[in-house]
Amino acid sequence: MIGIYLCDDEDLIRHQIQTALEWKIFVENYDMKVVCSTANAQELLNMAENAKQSIYFLDVELKDEEWDGFRLGRELRRRDPHGILVYITSYGDLAWRTFKYHLEAFDYIVKGPEPIGPSAAQCLGEIHTHLMAQRQAPTEMFTLRTGEMIRHVPLRDIIFFETAPVPHHVYLYTSGSRMDFLGSLNELEIQMGDQFIRTHRAYLVAADKIEAVDLKHNKLWAGGHECLLSRSGKAELRSKCCHILGVGLL
Length: 250
Description:
By secondary structure, the protein is of the alpha/beta class. The protein has 2 domains: 2-136, Rossmann fold, CATH 3.40.50; 141-244, CATH 2.40.50.1020. Helix content is 32%, strand content 31%. The protein has 7 helices and 15 strands. It has helices at residues 11-28, 41-47, 69-79, 95-100, 117-136, 185-192, 231-241; strands at residues 2-7, 32-38, 55-59, 84-89, 105-110, 141-146, 149-154, 160-163, 169-173, 178-182, 196-200, 203-206, 210-214, 219-222, 225-228. Helix 4 links the parallel strand 4 and strand 5 (105-110). Helix 1 crosses helix 5. The longest helix has 20 residues, at 117-136.
């Protein structure tokens, strides 16, 4: 169940939002619950001490000497990196403030003359749609062991694999790292499927990371790295992703 935490020091606004959220949850049968509805930032922090992947509706203009909505959001983001922040405000354009605090807000609900409940309910519906889409399309991961550590690397981050100087070892390259693990390019070629191309006996390259190909000098570039290209690699490259080579290179 996903917990929802609400902090607004205007009693009427808070009551409208809480009522709208609870009604939306009931009508749509969402697996969610309003865990905390309070005017006090510290009370919310205490209630959300162990919250993970929760939803937070926060008033920007809290009348609190220590906390405003953005400072509160920053602390919640530190504790719950994958939580969803929604800001409640009297002002329409506060995106620059979230940028200043290095925060990513899912939405802003602007207080106005009309009741705020319908906007909160609509926002919760959009959050639910977003969360369901994430669950239906989970990030594919590649799992490897480096020393005593098990690591999970998003498939979309992998640029290429390369045979390492040490026998039976393979290097995995991402944009910011190189990882050494026990493995075989032959086995990886089967495991990774058509998303990767065996451009050379020493290289298995992600097709969508190839930036340029030099057929004359038997090399290509992927993610800023230079990789070797063999005769058989050229043939596989042509068959799997000839669109990368461009007109005139075939």
